[in-house]
Amino acid sequence: MLKQKEIEQALEAVLLAAEEPVSIDRLIGLFDAGDLPEGSPRQAIRTALAEIEYALEGRGYELKRVASGYRFQIRQSMSPWVSRLKETRPPRFSRALMETLALIAYKQPATRGDIEAVRGVSVSPNIMRTLLERGWISVVGQRAVPGRPTLYGTTRAFLDYFNLRSLDELPPLSEIRALVDPHVAEGDGEIETGSDAESADTEETDTANEESARPLAEVVPLPTPKR
Amino acid sequence: MLKQKEIEQALEAVLLAAEEPVSIDRLIGLFDAGDLPEGSPRQAIRTALAEIEYALEGRGYELKRVASGYRFQIRQSMSPWVSRLKETRPPRFSRALMETLALIAYKQPATRGDIEAVRGVSVSPNIMRTLLERGWISVVGQRAVPGRPTLYGTTRAFLDYFNLRSLDELPPLSEIRALVDPHVAEGDGEIETGSDAESADTEETDTANEESARPLAEVVPLPTPKR
Amino acid sequence: MNDGEREGARLQDARKAGNEENVVAIVGDTIIKSLPTDLYIPPDALEVFLGAFEGPMDLLLYLIRRRNLDILEISVSEVTDQYMRYIEMMTAMKLTLAGEYLAMAATLAEIKSRLLLPRTEAVEEEEEDPRAELVRRLREYERFKAAAADLEALPRLERDIQPAAAALPTLIERKIEPMVEMKDLLLAMADILHRAALNERHAVAMETLSVRERMSLVLTAVNSRRGFVPFTDLFDVEEGKQGVIVTFLALMELSREGVIEIVQRGFRAPIYVRAGT
Fold first, then answer.
1. Given an 8 Å threshold on Cβ–Cβ distance, is B82 in contact with A17?
2. Would you say the C-alpha torsion B204, B26, A56, B44 has a positive or negative sign?
3. What is the CATH architecture assignment of B95-212?
4. What is the CATH number of domain A4-85?
5. Per-residue pLDDT tens digits for C180-239
6. Buried b or exposed e, range A202-224, using 16+ CB within 10 angstroms
7. Chain A touched by C239 (CB under 8 Å)
8. pTM of the model
9. Which residues of chain A make contact with B85, given a CB cutoff of 8 A?
10. Which chains touch C (3 or more CB pairs under 8 A)?
11. Predicted ipTM?
């Protein structure tokens, strides 16, 4: 016959490995004849379960009896911790969404048609919905043309998120254009030499993969509080 | 600041909810600033984990540290009870697969050619696929020789599966007995190169929060091919 | 051990009998030189037998270890003979044989022939023992075969260890939004401009941002009230001259686009603004 402690260990092992609650009958069935006291196997299991339950007082989990049997369960009060663990990093916003947002910021008030005309592809309703839900754009009116398309503009929340006091603080298009178009940038000798020296540097320091991000921050004065 | 007991409860809840080992860094990340003692959050977590481990002495399960972090697991001695409950047979792996895995583990980084040179037969693509799918091995680079053959190494997931904390804990490769034949002794030197992996420093695994599938070679200095 | 000795003795006999290449099997004292047509071993069994080996190294190691011989003490000649017998049986029964088995047979044959060649002492000093390479390979294979067995014996998940899990509490849903940086936004805009530059039809020309922004604000103000909004309500004197001009330009632009209507009932009457109809 097994000792009380051995029964407890076996039950703990089984219940923590099981993916669903295990009934008392099934628990009894796991033991061989002779493992449990002959007259009262059920009583022995119950006593062991009660002992396990008692030992878990003050711990982050408990032994719980539900309709179909017993299971270990994380205490409800621990829910915030588990929730944090299960949170997954959200994916990045798509290129299409970023372009749509940029166009609304620079071309507002703008309709979906305006955005599509520039981007050359249709704007998915999902993108507009995401931007609206995020509170970065809002409906500001309708254009008085057939179909009365909705006009969108950026919101206060958009400015707050990007730490801007007003849209004025966004860099002008001429500067942004210089970022990717080398011909436009040619006029500016300083930028040219600056980026040359930099690319030479980055090769050595093995941070070349940041290249796409680096020149931007250095070439374009990112919005700062007005002087 | 949380009380020691509250930290323990949170850790228990999180580790019982996680489906894989959780690194110390990830555990620390779950707490808010101010929850843990400012100077030594890591120490606070370690103390709590040690306390949990201690509390489980004599129980059917334990807190175990493996390569990619901590996990609760059923004690090995209890596995007969668990197999009585679970009907599914654990997967078996062929000797060819285990030999291939052993060669990669002890000789990493290793190419298929390295494996074939020892085993005397070509490595079946199925075996490599199984090992890659299981996440036990991963591509760690190419050897700088003609044809640039792919180099493979074992991963944290491999160590996790075999209940190991680091490659150090692998059973040592059998020693080669003193040889009588001087010609054979020459060959001995060649064999020795393979055992470099054993002595590689694999300590301090808990500071890394990499995913378990990342190749160990990225984390652990492993012998590199001669150029 | 007895088996091994007996095997050895039989092989000795076989050798004495000469023409050992043709020896297929030895039953008692009888040397069989050709396969009987009614061979008792079913091909399946032989296939299973060979399938139990992980290749020629494994088979060779088995032949050596079966006789409890140290690898260093192997008689290449004996082992080669045994190995050849297996290979011949396989080929005779037309079983598909992996190329590696044949390659090993060739290696063994070569070593054996080199050992049989008479050599002068000078040559012997220079030349490596032809067995050395094979012995080295066998030993290394044996090492990793043992390592694989060690690995197999380690406690492992699914078989010996089960992760412990407990049922989850009801979780608190918290939506985390993706992070966006200003540079992402600007890079997106830069891309648009770059593409637009390549396609003249999509050229992007825009007013100053302050006007565009004000257009949105004015529109929002107009739309938030049903009907007419007094023109003057849309201006904030505290903004100063600059602000008034920006608002004025915004109103003009919106009116031009037909988004709003500006009405005045008579000369000097109050001006009103309402959403375009």
1. yes
2. positive
3. Orthogonal Bundle (1.10)
4. 1.10.10.10
5. 888 888 888 888 887 777 665 555 555 567 788 888 888 888 888 778 888 888 888 787
6. eeeeeeeeeeeebbbeebbebbe
7. no
8. 0.63
9. 14, 17-18, 22, 26, 30
10. A, B
11. 0.63
